[in-house]
Design a protein that fits this description.
Helix content: 55-70%
Order of helices and strands: HH
Shape: elongated
Domain Acb2/Tad1 hairpin: 7-69
Strand content: under 5%
Pfam family, one: Acb2_Tad1_hairpin
Keywords: Nucleotide-binding
Largest sheet: none
Protein name: Acb2/Tad1 hairpin domain-containing protein
Number of strands: 0
Structural class: mainly alpha
GO molecular function: nucleotide binding
């Protein structure tokens, strides 16, 4: 649905450069996900450490996107 963000409280309109930046981050995230799957197939990889890497990568990409999106902070 076009402009669905306008129906969600706390979201704002993004500039084209912000959209381009977020799309670049999402492309890098997708590539990283594929690399993660590849590494997961290597025999002897420590699954606990790999799980920690996944969690931290997911969190890092989330913060990367939020640095651009700057959603409203309900706690401030």
């Amino acid at each position: 649905m076009d402009n669905q963000h306008k129906k969600i409280t706390g979201y704002r309109d993004l500039s084209q450069s912000e959209i381009d930046g977020m799309n670049s981050i999402k492309a890098l995230e997708a590539d990283t996900g594929e690399l993660f799957k590849q590494i997961g197939q290597i025999e002897g990889v420590d699954p606990r450490i790999l799980a920690l890497a996944k969690t931290n990568l997911q969190q890092g990409f989330m913060w990367f996107v939020r640095s651009i999106a700057k959603p409203a902070d309900p706690f401030s």
